[in-house]
Design brief:
Keywords: Membrane, Transmembrane, Transmembrane helix. By secondary structure, this protein is mainly α. It is built from 5 helices and 2 strands; from the N terminus they run E-E-H-H-H-H-H. The protein has a two-stranded antiparallel ribbon.
Length: 162
């Protein structure tokens, strides 16, 4: 079969009395999508490698980013596969589509959850009181009630300089 055969396929749906039109996506959409996906995967893998290799990059925020990048790599590898299957395969079983959409939904939800966690962490650090942020982020401090703002700056220097 030629690729031209799949460009405009019309199926009659006798169950609902409507016609279903399948159109092959244009190369103007596929090529930029593939380039952006590959560049994003390379950037995510590089970020994962750098955080895993250098111990001084293993901070709380960077661990959020590491987990977010892992979830993003999963999403970026599953989405194009799903897009290609739906665009070029004439008929796909409903069970397979349910599994693919489920995986994409889980990884996309994971991406949103990591973004929310990073945003909350940033808001706590910047807008909440500094002693509250120190209490939340520092489990190694024993006497949490007597933490002062002057100790916050000292603690911040020791955590981020290591």
């Amino acid at each position: 079969m030629d690729p031209e055969d799949f460009e405009n396929v019309t199926l009659n749906d006798t169950e609902f009395g409507q016609e279903i039109h399948y159109q092959r996506p244009s190369d103007l959409v596929l090529i930029p999508t593939a380039i952006v996906t590959l560049l994003s995967i390379v950037a995510d893998v590089l970020t994962i490698y750098l955080i895993a290799k250098f111990k001084n990059l293993r901070t709380t925020v960077n661990l959020y980013i590491l987990n977010w990048r892992i979830c993003n790599v999963l999403f970026l590898t599953l989405s194009p596969i799903n897009f290609i299957v739906l665009a070029f395969v004439e008929y796909v079983y409903k069970d397979i589509i349910c599994v693919w959409f489920g995986e994409i939904l889980v990884t996309l939800t994971g991406n949103f959850m990591f973004a929310i966690a990073l945003t909350l962490d940033w808001c706590i650090l910047n807008y909440a009181s500094q002693s509250f942020a120190l209490k939340v982020r520092s489990p190694e401090i024993e006497d949490r009630d007597e933490v002062k703002v002057s100790n916050w700056a000292k603690h911040k220097k020791t955590v981020y300089s290591e």
